[in-house]
Amino acid sequence: MTHPGRRRATIHDVAAEAGVSRGTVSRLLNGTSYVSSEAREAIEKAIAKVGYVQNTAARNLVTQRSRAVGFLVHEPHELFLDDPNIGAILLGANEVVSEADFQLVVLVLDSERDSQRVADYLRGGFVDGAVLVSARQHDTIAGAVERLGLPAVFIGHPPGHPAIPYVGIDNRSAARSVTQELLATGRERVAMVACALDRDSGSDRLAGFRDALGERFDPRLVVDHLLYSYASGLEGARELLRREPAIDGIFAASDAVAAGVLEALREAGRSVPGDVGVVGFDDSAWAVRCVPALSTVRQPARLMGRRAAEIVLGQIQGAEVEPGGALLDTEVVWRASA
C-alpha cells in the first residue's frame, strides 16, 4: 500500500515481489498473451501488497486499445440535458460498457465546429468504437466514423450509411398505430406537430401519421419544427389552432412536444381530452408528468442503449458486422389525454 511521501510502485516492484519476470507481469497487465494461473495469482497478490496502479496511457500504447466507447449525441446541449430518452439510452449503453470494463465517453455535438473537433478526437484513437445518437442525413460525424472504419452503431437508421449497423424501432408503424387509436375515439380533424424531419425517426413518424389518415390527410394540418422539444409543441399547436380552430385531435412527435401542445391548448381554453385528444411518442417521464397523463407510444430506450453497446463491443472484439440492424418492439400506452 502506498503512503504520502513514498515513491510510486512500479512494474519492477511487482515482479520482484511476485518472483516472476517483468515481462510476465507486463503480459498479464496488457492481456497480450497467456499467463499461468499460478503466476496470475502471485502477481495479483504482489500488486495488492506493493500498491501498484497501472499507467493506463502506457498500456494503451502496447495494446493499441483505449478501452473506451464514444457516445456521440448530435443535439443542442440544453436538449441533451432535457431529453429523458437520451438519458435512458445512455444508461443502457453504460451498463453494458461497464460490465466489459470499458469506459463510456460522452461527446455532445451542437455545431459543425463540434463535429470537426470530435472527428479529430476520434482520429486520435481515444475511443475503440462509437454509439451515434440523433444522427441526421448527410451527418458530418457519421461520415467521419465511416471513413475511419471505427466500430460503430446508430441508434435509429439514418440513410446513406449502409456499412454502419443500427438499433431502433419501427417509427412508421408505431406512429400509424397511435394515430389510428386517436381516430378511433371519434376525432374528425386530426393534426400533427412533426419534428426532426431531417432524421429517420421524424420523417417516419410523419409517414405513419399520413398512413393512418389516408384520404383524410390534410397537409395544412401538419406543422414541422427542427427539434423534439416543449417549445416546438407550444409554437406548433398555436400555429395549428390559427390555421384550423376546429382541430379536435393532435399527434405530437414526442412526449416533450406533446407537453408543449397541452400548454397551448390550455392557453386557448380547450379542454383535453374533451375538446381535443392529444397523443405523444416515447412514454418518457414527460408522459406521466403531464396533466392529463399522455397516451403515447412506449419505446424501449434503455434496451436500445444496451443492444447498441453490445454490437459495438462485439465489433471491437472482432465480430463480423452484420448488414442492416435490429428493430425492437413498441406498444401504444393509452392514458387520459385522449
TrEMBL record:
InterPro entries per the UniProt record, alphabetical: Cro/C1-type_HTH (IPR001387), HTH_LacI (IPR000843), LacI/GalR-like_sensor (IPR046335), Lambda_DNA-bd_dom_sf (IPR010982), Peripla_BP_I (IPR028082)
UniProtKB keywords: DNA-binding, Transcription, Transcription regulation
Location of the HTH cro/C1-type domain: 10-53
Database matches in Pfam families: LacI (PF00356), Peripla_BP_3 (PF13377)
PROSITE patterns reported for this sequence: HTH_CROC1, HTH_LACI_1, HTH_LACI_2
Span of domain HTH lacI-type: 9-63
Regions annotated as coiled coil: none
Protein name (record): LacI family transcriptional regulator
Organism, scientific name: Cellulomonas chengniuliangii
